[in-house]
């Protein structure tokens, strides 16, 4: 697509990385500043009319609201009020699959700070997207080319 790509893991503060490396799941207090920083990156790209892809484990509905609206998404289920910065238009791609498939992929990953032992805590935290969120669900049981094609098709269809 020629879009900028950001991996949210690259923006975790050192404290978060250390915590995960020790097998300690992150909590909301750990994640909110990180999500606000990611929102600021997306806001900057939007202001320069640059489309971007962000790979991010936005596990909870509130986390997705923060990505869309910044810090104001923490307290409210509502979009920002008139006169504030408009909410970003984000298509969330929910990569869905059984824990065993994801665990086997995590086992093959090398040099990452999050150990596979934290996967269960992520499944426990997960609030899958639902209406009225703007999202698609893509099965991880498909081949990588099928996954990419489904995501590209959804983006191009608007």
UniProtKB/TrEMBL annotation:
GO cellular component labels: cytoplasm
SUPFAM superfamilies: P-loop containing nucleoside triphosphate hydrolases
Keywords, ordered alphabetically: ATP-binding, Kinase, Nucleotide-binding, Transferase
Reaction(s) this enzyme catalyzes, per UniProt: D-gluconate + ATP = 6-phospho-D-gluconate + ADP + H(+)
Pathway(s) the chain acts in: Carbohydrate acid metabolism; D-gluconate degradation
The keyword Protease appears for this protein: no
Family named by the database record: Belongs to the gluconokinase GntK/GntV family.
Protein name: Gluconokinase
């Amino acid at each position: 697509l020629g879009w900028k790509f950001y991996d949210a893991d690259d923006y975790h503060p050192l404290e978060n990385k250390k915590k995960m490396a020790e097998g300690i799941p992150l909590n909301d207090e750990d994640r909110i500043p990180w999500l606000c920083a990611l929102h600021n990156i997306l806001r900057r790209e939007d202001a320069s009319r640059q489309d971007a892809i962000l790979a991010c484990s936005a596990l909870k509905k509130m986390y997705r609201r923060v990505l869309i609206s910044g810090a104001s998404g923490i307290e409210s289920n509502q979009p920002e009020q008139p006169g504030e910065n408009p909410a970003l238009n984000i298509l969330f791609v929910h990569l869905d699959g059984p824990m065993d498939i994801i665990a086997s992929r995590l086992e093959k990953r090398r040099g990452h700070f999050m150990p596979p032992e934290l996967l269960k805590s992520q499944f426990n935290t997960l609030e899958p997207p639902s209406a009225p969120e703007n999202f698609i669900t893509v099965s991880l049981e498909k081949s990588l080319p099928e996954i990419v094609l489904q995501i590209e098709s959804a983006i191009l269809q608007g």
